[in-house]
Amino acid sequence: MTLSAIKSKAAALKAGFAEAGAMPVDCPVLLPAETLLDLYGEDIRTRAFLTHDPVRGEVILRPDFTLPVVQRHMAEGAEPARYTYAGEIFRRQEEHPERPSEYHQVGYEVFDRADPAGADAEVFARFADVLAPYGLRAVVGDIGILIAAVSGLDTSAARKAAMMRHIWRPRRFRALLERYAGRAPVPATRAALLKCADPLAEAGPVIGVRDHDEIATRLAALRADAAEPPLPAGQVDLIEALVRVSETCGYALERLRDIAVDMPAIAGAVDRLAARCEALAARGVDVNNLPFDANFGRTSMEYYDGFVFGFSAPGHPDWPLVASGGRYDALTRQLGQGREIPAVGGVIRPGLLVDLEEAET
């Protein structure tokens, strides 16, 4: 595989999306780190490359294109809009050192408030058509259903907020669910802290970035959380049943409708899934054989908040996804400075397509 072959494949994919009506855009390689840190917290440092510019301050090597495309659209874009782009992105690969930390992406993004289900189907179907010659396996999911389930739990706003932050970190989410349900023991250090009437009275001088008031506020939050009743066992069981749903779309929809009977908070999200399935079928997608996994997309960048999809190479289980994408309405609200617009898009890794083509020759 050569760089010229990858660039040629990327240019061909981008041209195809442009012919379909997308406007080609270019994005800077260096992005302000502050925006990404505000969105994703300090965890972004483990996944991206940050450096310091003497004029701009802390900057980050572009970890993907979605953020700058959203910023551009929210600042100057008309509605509806479709964009396409191609270029390098940079991501640290500490968990997979065998994978490159610099590689190419080609993307297609749709900003359209008129028909979200139709836009979801448009993006997925366009990717399915482009990738059809490569024998990839498609899978879809919907993070919005789990978000709706957490929103409807009978617990405090603080606990819901904590679970929302960790939806994209399944192990931490599971640990919180177990703790809030009273199924996991309270750590000994926390138990000892909560038993102490005034932990700060016997503490030494404050060392670190948190001052006395911040520590006191955190202690008050821990005490308030300890006083909360456990999550109802039935709701915990329903959450666990929800994240286990892994069927073809038709059967998954039936199962989720059954869960919605006892968890009405997800009914609207399940209705949106049904509308999406109808829109996909209208575009010729065989939804009766399309796999749905309720957990899919939960380890991706945290901006996906609804429909998600991916295409993998069956003969290469060690590879990352060849293509992936999803809906990120919340990101447009965060970056829109008072404006928002439903948005969905996806990316393809042209280098992996080149690898597949070369393997066949």
Number of domains: 3
Overall 3D geometry? Answer: globular
Question: Helical content, roughly?
Answer: 40-55%
Count the DSSP helices.
Answer: 14
CATH superfamily of the largest domain: Bira Bifunctional Protein, Domain 2
State the secondary-structure class.
alpha+beta
CATH architecture of the largest domain: 2-Layer Sandwich
Mean pLDDT, all residues? 88
Which value, in Å, is the CA radius of gyration?
22 Å
What proportion of the residues form beta strands (DSSP E)? 15-25%
Pfam families: tRNA-synt_His (PF13393)
GO biological process, one term: histidyl-tRNA aminoacylation
Binding site for L-histidine: 64-66, 91, 105, 109, 298, 303-304
Protein name: Histidine--tRNA ligase
Q: What is the compact description of this entry?
A:
The protein is of the alpha+beta class and 361 residues long.
Q: Overview of this structure, please?
A:
It holds the Pfam family tRNA-synt_His. The protein is of the alpha+beta class and 361 residues long. The longest helix has 17 residues, at 3-19. Helix 1 packs across helix 14 (350-360), helix 4 (116-131) packs across helix 12 (267-282) and helix 6 (157-165) packs antiparallel against helix 7 (170-180). The chain starts with a helix and ends with a helix. The strands form three sheets. It has a seven-stranded mixed beta sheet with strand order 1-5-6-12-11-10-7, with helices on both faces. It has a three-stranded antiparallel beta sheet with strand order 2-4-3. It has helices spanning 3-19, 33-40, 66-76, 116-131, 143-151, 157-165, 170-180, 188-195, 212-227, 233-243, 249-262, 267-282, 329-335, 350-360; strands at residues 23-24, 30-32, 50-53, 57-61, 81-90, 102-111, 137-142, 246-248, 291-293, 307-312, 323-327, 343-348. The chain is globular and about 70 Å long.
